[in-house]
């Protein structure tokens, strides 16, 4: 007759690898999130005491005094800026866009961007301003 050995198996799960992975993911998101909302230095127009400072979770598109478009700090064409935010909308359908237009920027460049964003279906598009401190 053969004897069977009964093994005592440990059925507990080690949480250490999962905690390590979650810590790395948290660090990655903490480093990359501020990069999404930063942009170039602009002289924003002044708009009274109720300025629109922008949502921290909004995508920032900037238009400088020369009429150049930037997503973050990356120089892009107007159509490329629209394509980029359309790609981002797939992850978040309620995405808010804030346009940062320099006070010396061409009004047509800012409104052209805003019109293109409205044409592709963005309903939450705002213009960022700064407080008018007299």
Defining traits:
14% strand; five-stranded mixed sheet; 3 helices; alpha/beta; 134 residues; Nucleotidyltransferase, domain 5
Please characterize this protein's 3D structure.
By secondary structure, this protein is an alpha/beta fold. It has a domain at 37-127: 2-Layer Sandwich (Nucleotidyltransferase, domain 5), CATH 3.30.420. The protein has helices at 16-37, 78-89, 107-119, and strands at residues 59-63, 69-71, 74-76, 97-101, 125-127. Strand 4, helix 3 (107-119) and strand 5 (125-127) form a beta-alpha-beta unit. The longest helix is centred in the N-terminal third of the chain and has 22 residues, at 16-37.
CATH topology of the domain at 37-127: Nucleotidyltransferase, domain 5
The rounded Rg comes to 24 Å
Query: Got a strand count?
Result: 5
Could you spell the SSE succession in H and E letters? HEEEHEHE
